[in-house]
Amino acid sequence: MKHCPNCGALCPWPGQKFCQKCGAPLSDTPPQATPGYAGDEAAVRRKRLIAGVAAAAVVVVAAVGIAIWALAPHSRQPATPVDAPAPTPAATPRPTANTANTPETAESAVPELDHTLLYLEGLPETEGLTLTVNGAPAAWQTDAAGRLCIDQSAVTQSDTLLRAVLPQGENRWLTATALVSRPGNQTASFGALRESDAQGCSAQPDDDFIGTLLSLYYRSLLKAYNSGQVADLRFSTDMNDQSYQTAIVNGAYNAVAYDLDRSDMWFTLEGIAYREGTVTLNAAGQWYGVNRNTGADEAGTDYLTIQLLWRDGMWQVDRCVPCTEEEYHNGTLRITPPMA
Question: 308: Cβ–Cβ under 8 A, 6 or more apart, which residues?
Fold first, then answer.
């Protein structure tokens, strides 16, 4: 598994392109060793030792070479044959206006970001482009430098999902998403473009997007357990809200104060079913927390069959049913997918 190079959050899904916590891109991030694993630490120490020995050897060889050169007699004869023509002196380049391009002038040439705008990175400007913020339409614009952006006032809460839909001709569209971890962020990095309908619904959503959505949803569920407020649920349909309302309000799971930063959810591709407007899959939620009565650290794993539904311009969790660890691994779904 790899970790985000920006915030260090665990990024467990294969091929994940951006961090589900801070939104930083991960496409060029190599997998990281799991912290605390003794074998990895030993490997790091061995690599550091080998690097140190190699560096010392280079220094010794260089020093010996310098000493031999200093003691050896040196010829004053030219390296070229005596009858070789004399080299033509190189012409001295004349300074031009461009040679005065110092780091200071190069930096000053980059337009400053407007703090009232959120800049949309990795998204080509396309005629007819539409943008939604958590499913609600949002107006986009270009600044004086031609960069795509939206007003900061469009993002009012943490973990906000932006979706862009780009027309590609008759009856063809592409869609891409970006995660804004908190209000005030200056940039939003969009992921890969995928085929979709005019509203941005893909027949087979990107695995990275599904993983990010489930992670955000699961943390919001644990937050709702902590607060006792159903309103803390994110990316959840009204039906799913109602199914959890009694447990959340009555404190059925509040014996533990959940650690939202350490807890996370991922899913398996085993048994996953894509239908028009739905995705049914098995997911595992790993939670960490502190027992409110004893103060002891606790941890556990929730195995669930989850059905995602495209509604109101975005994918949302519509149903959750407990499943076993065995069912999770072998792809047995406890929710029957809709007919194709």
Answer: 205, 210, 213, 278, 279, 280, 281, 315, 316, 317, 318
